[in-house]
Amino acid sequence: MAAKEFKIFCGNANRPLAQEIVDYLGVPLGQAKIKRFQDGETCLAIDESVRGADIYVVQPTCYPTNDNIMELLIMIDAIRRASARRITAVMPYYGYARQERKTRARDPITAKLMANLITTAGADRVVTMDLHAPAIQGFFDIPLDHLPGVPILAEYFREKGLENLCVVSPDLGGVTRARDLAERIGASLAIIDKRRPEANVSEIMHVIGELKGKTVIMIDDIIDTAGTITQGAQALVERGAKEVYACCTHPVLSGPAVERLSNSVIRELVVTNTIPLREKVIPQIKVLSVAPLLGEAIVRIHEDLSVSKLFS
Predict the structure, then answer these.
(1) Is 0.70 surpassed by the pTM of this model?
(2) Which of 35, 112, 194, 214 is flagged as catalytic?
């Protein structure tokens, strides 16, 4: 019996990453065109057969979030109706992940709504990276592979050969991620205690850990407006840190983020290309590719092999 065929398609959210993935795997990118009607509705045309094939749709739901979500849902629906054997949504960045619980009366849980939409559209599996809230994995009734970005970031910092390192979590919720990076690069660990009086606003309260004379690496899953990371970096320098690096998996970098980073004490910001940078890259930003990781995950899923072996 012939081996199952697999094909990779993408929307407009991050075509350069999709191209890197297919180049890594040595396969062509699926032929599909996504345009807009005059009224803003999404128009999709898939120009090759997908019958009986395993299909992987690469589409992070980043800015413009709602447009990219609709592209993903429409593409999944079209491929399902065209008799694909199995459809995997490869979402390196999962939009609305920060709306995963009710914090006030009558709040929506939009991360769960996203899971419902993707499943209803016809996805059989989801691949994503560094969910803001790991519990979102439980929102899906289909298999979900959750890939970590820390190994990619750790390899970069090991190769830099920095000494006397301390990894800092910018909040209590990120301690597990920071500890993972610290263990991988042989660094100590510190934690910033902050409070958020409102969305996209944070205040540094305390720093827990020894920083004097150390080279510090701050790590987060998402950097959005960069207020937390730049304020945190300043607080660490004021408490004796020698120099500050920062890293994250998802560089949302909205609003004043780039200006804040340009004017901050951060020596270098290391990010991945789960989503494309919205503005011109400033000298402090170093972009690492997740294409080999996603490519290997696709191969393992297609061949029914363990994905977790990638990180052991």
Answers:
(1) yes
(2) 194
